[in-house]
């Protein structure tokens, strides 16, 4: 059963690539045609690659893995935080700090500092200090929370990362490659497919497209978590493995359920086909 439909992809604008003068020739095999100077992505391939990425994410999480969601561009920030939070996964949606993966021991120390400051604030640790000291500590806490809040509970480097716009998130992608961490990502027509282990050809500039594909990855995580928790129990109750996931299916498998409209509406409030 498909995890997303062709209609959902079309409605989200996932097929719109960049202007023909702004492309990566390595993406040629994923391009269907061009229209009015804009490349159109082959969504049949997108569906196939979605299935591969979905299965990888599901199995990775089912075996105890963690997926780090990364998307700092404006179009992706909301869906990255929302979907990662929905399934209890870490995320970065503000600014990628160099060394978040390759120098995780230092990042972990900053996370401990964040928790220390939060504990001080909640238990009255700021009392007895001058207004200037309290202001400085509060600013430090807010800064750490903004930059590291999404990974506050990440105890080690992730098993894989999900990326919206590999060009913008080149630091994250390069760090993952250096550590041998699999990269799952949306591949727009200006991206380099050689950097991605599990590519999903699509529009990484449209809000609805980024949101829909991020939702798909999050739902793969959810299915993996259920498999991890239930192990063989679900298989004994339902040979097809679909029944325990009825709630997720109503959101995502719109092509085969009555929840098509709901699944599409949940993707995002608005679409953008900006190819600039």
TrEMBL record:
List GO molecular-function terms, semicolon-separated.
Answer: structural constituent of ribosome
Keyword Ribonucleoprotein assigned: yes
Region feature (Disordered): 254-276
**Any one of the GO CC terms:** cytosolic small ribosomal subunit
An example of a Gene Ontology BP annotation on this entry?
A: translation
Q: Which SUPFAM superfamilies match?
A: Ribosomal protein S2
**Highest rank taxon of the organism:** Bacteria
Q: Which residues cross the membrane?
A: none
Instruction: List the InterPro entries.
Output: Ribosomal_uS2, Ribosomal_uS2_bac/mit/plastid, Ribosomal_uS2_CS, Ribosomal_uS2_flav_dom_sf
**UniProt keyword annotations, A-Z:** Ribonucleoprotein, Ribosomal protein
The record's HAMAP family line, in alphabetical order, gives: Ribosomal_uS2_B
Entry-linked NCBIfam families: rpsB_bact
Please state which protein family the record places this protein in: Belongs to the universal ribosomal protein uS2 family.
Name under which the protein is recorded: Small ribosomal subunit protein uS2
